[in-house]
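Lab notebook, bench 4. The sequencing result for the construct came back, and we need a structural model before the next group meeting so we can plan mutations. Quick request posted to the team channel:

Model the 3D structure of this chain.
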Amino acid sequence: MARAPRGLHRIRMVMMDVDGVLTDGRIVLDARGGESKSFFSQDGVALRLWSDAGGLTAFVTGRASRAVERRARELEITELSMNAARKLEAYERICRRHRLADEEVCFIGDDLVDLPPMRRAGFPVAVRNAVAEVKRAARYVTRLRGGEGAVRETLRHILVAQGRWAPLLRRFETVS
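Done. Here's the predicted structure in token form:
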């Protein structure tokens, strides 16, 4: 694992876009108007571990989707903001609600609409397949692509930096 940047010890909330971060960015529409998305299970496990460690989570997406609502419920995501055409407004609302300073927030994005909250967050992250402008705004660019473990990679860096990764792993140790 690559060495994580500094300042991760203050992170309390991880906010993220959905399409292109939690998914590979494809939006599959069927003839009846249905939509499907593919989520990476290891990102889900990492989000649960982060929550179990006391971390807060938020999905901030410009689209509304039943699949995203369901995934947020399954993972017990702290905040879900859909139809967030202005993601900075959603970011600010969530921060106020949870009394978070910008330095306590990680925002993971991949496209131009993610730039405003990334510029405010204490730890802006771009997934490997992000557009160039988002990568330039990030303090960290993941090795993995969105929808392929980028969220898990980010959360692992934060949890390791905070000294919470090893204790979380103990629950998976087997006794012989």
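The two ends are 29 Å apart (CA to CA).
Will bring this to the meeting.
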